[in-house]
Write a structure and sequence with these properties.
The protein has 137 residues and is α/β, with parallel strands linked by helices. It has six helices and five strands, in the order βαβαβαβαααβ. It has helices at 15-28, 58-79, 93-104, 113-116, 119-122, 125-128, and strands at 4-10, 30-42, 86-90, 108-111, 132-135. A five-stranded parallel beta sheet has the order 3-2-1-4-5, sandwiched between helices. The chain is globular. The two termini are 17 Å apart.
Length: 137
Amino acid sequence: MAAYRTILFLSGHDPERDETALKKLARHYVGANTAVYLLNVAAHHVTGFGEGTARGHIANDMQTKQEVFPQLKALCEQFGIPLNHIHIELGEPLAVIERCVRELGIELLVVAPAASGGQSKLAPLLDSCPCDLHFIR
């Protein structure tokens, strides 16, 4: 397999499965000059997916980020990924993923196992993703 320069790994909210998927990712796609980014997408509280959070629930959104960060930090430390490559975003998953892919100049998007359990939600990526896409088991 050819190495990619930039890879975005979509976390599946399951640390053990994420670790297994990152091992496979490293074995098949990561080269010496590959930048790997981790992305976790969560819904806004109360409003569900969307761009806004009700004023009284901003603290809940921060709590979501604080719960996810230690898991992603541990993966970064284990796989030698810089901490500034962690992205925890709130909003509609497809829009967030597509924005991150474009902003970071991603060449390969890798979807982790638990995230791929919602493949029907991510199926439109097959047509709209501006980079290579890999669902990893």
